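I hope you will forgive my troubling you with a question about protein structure. Could you please explain, in whatever detail you think fit, how the structure tokens follow from the sequence? Thank you for your consideration; the sequence and its tokens are set out here.
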Amino acid sequence: MALSILGKRMAAGLAAMALMSPHMLGAGQVGLVKIDGAIGPATASYISRAVDEAAAAQDACLIIQLDTPGGLLDSTKEIVEKLLSDAVPTVVYVAPAGSTAASAGTFITLAADVAAMAPDTTIGAAHPVSFTGGDEGGSNDVHRTKMENYASSYIDTIASKRGHNVAWAKAAVLQSACTNAEAALRLKVIDIIAPDMPSLLKQLDQRHVGQTILHTAGAQVVEIPMAVREKIFQMLWHPEVMFVLMLVAIYGIIGELSNPGAILPGVAGAVALILALYMSTILPINIAGLALILLAVALFVIDVFAVTHGVLTGGGIIAFFLGSIMLFDRNPAFQLSLGVIIPATVLTAAFFLFIIGAGLRAQFLPAKTGPQTMLGKTAAALTAIDQAGGQVMIDGEYWKAVSQIPLAKGAAAEIVGIEGLTLHVKPKS
């Protein structure tokens, strides 16, 4: 009888456990993704896929370890929408020490179910000028005001939904407010300060997220890696890569034009140009910077033929340098460093001065071999020469010659043209 009662209790317990939410039980596993760098399309794709995978695996939560200077508006919105979908409890953890969640990172941190930071980290400076990539010209106050109002309203909605400090969130947008982890916790901008992952899991344990109770103490942390296509896109999706592709396109196409038939430079330049154009639709390009770079290329080419004693080349170097600095200045997260710009400027100037310049000048030099080298030379008439023809000797070879003005035998004949194997001559003046 006792065994029968025990069996019924066990069966009832198993049935109750079967009806409980997996998150109530705790899956014993926590998903993890690490974001280090600017927020872009590859990042948005990675986080979106990770949320779906963590939900499918019934992970206790998904932790997004974040360190970013900012990023693009469209990609940030995609990430925020995914976090707000509540497919799985999400935790954004600004770490390790020294990391920052600036600009777009502020929106993403506040959009998580739980916002956490490591000591000695910062969050804020979410003004839309640095968040969206500029104001489409830099002087359109109406557009700038619209963007500020939109970003302020957007972060207000996010902070309100997650129970974070709305006033500070709006100040981060309108006044570029920025704070460290300790102040952020005190201001209720974030929920947790954790020096490391075990501490974070311990503080998350038994925390209520909606109707779910997190069970994370001692949970296994399983990192969700980037897919191959995401890694490739993330590797290519950098201003430095686009800058190099742009240089390859310039070098390749100009190199092919200056040395027709080389084929390889033209093919490489065309492929690089297509890739650079594709990336320009994603990265925040400053048209003024691009125009300065193209002007520099034009000045380099013109100076090959113009007698300016290097004035145009000097102007081209300055234009290229300034254009490179301005090329991505609409968003601080994508600005090129001087460590890239200075070598590129020197290399480009040398490329046009010594390689392209020599190639272009060579095309306009007088011919040094072949029949064309005989133009302007003087030959002795072996026979009388008229319109019907005659014969001359030049460089030890006999040639048929014709002349509009008759020449006597032995006269000096100046070669003025070549047509097949016949020379056109005239009396030597």
In short: The chain is about 50% helix and 15% strand.
